[in-house]
Amino acid sequence: MDTNPRIAAQTSVVRPSGGSWDLVENWPGLLLTAVIAALSFGLRDLPGVAIFSPMILSILLGIVLHNSIGTPRIAKAGVTFCVRRVLRFAIILLGLQLTASQVVEVGASGMLVLVATLVCTFVFTTWLGRMIGVDRKLSQLIAAGTSICGASAVIATNTVTEAHDEDVAYAVACVTVFGSIAMFVYPLLPGLLHLDAHAYGLWAGASIHEIAQVMAAAYQDGQQAGDAAAIAKLTRVAMLAPVVIVLGILAARNMKSSDRACSSAKAPMPWFVLGFTALVGLNSVVTIPAAAKAEIVLVTTFLMSMALAAMGLETDVAKLRAKGIRPLILGFAAFLFVATFSLSLIKTMG
Q1: Taking the complete model, does pTM exceed 0.85, yes or no?
Q2: Going by C-beta distance under 8 Å and a sequence separation of 6 or more, which residues neighbour residue 346?
Q3: Is 8 helix (H, G, I), strand (E, B) or coil?
Q4: Nearest CA-CA partner of 309 in 38, 14, 100, 6
Q5: pLDDT tens, residue by residue, 215-239
Q6: Deepest in the core among 21, 70, 161, 322, taking most CB within 10 A?
Q7: Are the beta carbons of 236 and 179 closer than 8 angstroms?
Q8: Is residue 243 a contact partner of residue 148, using CB atoms and an 8 Å limit?
């Protein structure tokens, strides 16, 4: 066995691109993740469960199944295909939910709030993670989920950070817990904080983690607040592309700095981000009928749910427990930061 730590470190970061396109090999895993995703949609009809997105329910069901009876060996190839290939396709389709005009509607001041909040939250979270001893990759996943768009940002960011699936599950859990807290607490605060409908909507859209959580919190203050929150949140989603590209570049630099022999290392090119951007552009110039767009949103959510179900099927709860409480503290601190920082900007800018 090779005990050279430098070689071992290099080997540990090499992960297969995942997922041969062999349908015969993949169909059991694809079927399993599809069943879990469908079940997660069905569970939302139960009282009190609708506040959670199908994506969140899917990863929870996947974790329960894997840690109770185990993931069937015959399904493993399809599960890997789902995590790698299906995920990227779903993120590309996410571009059809955004348009350039939505960004314009935010306005210059609103855009400043969103960009500054995203950047500062990401930087603060990764810095604090380093200070309290949380793994760099896990810190980046929590930072992305908090500053951009919850679980979708976590799994998209992981395409370049390449953290373990347990890290992804932990980060998704963090953004789910604290985003859910925000969803219940925010509607109690507009009067106390003297926020009008537009300001409240911008605050919710700039700081709450998941799209579904934003909608649930914002529309409780009326249509104007909900519409403002939706536009702000979707604009945050659009920032996913540049963030992932930048992280890819930083990942390549880290590889080079860790070993000068890796001078040929290149930034992992997240090609799916280009597809995401292209569909945003297409959606900006071509009017897609409302009925068709609703179907696209449903398909996108279903595919994302399949990908998260697959991650759950690869997640070991014992490894999650081994990570301790520090990442949870980091997620809580990031939640407080994104809420207070964005609110301060909105108050300052009037």
Answers
A1: no
A2: 113, 195, 199, 202, 203, 206
A3: helix
A4: 38
A5: 778 888 887 888 888 888 888 887 8
A6: 161
A7: no
A8: yes
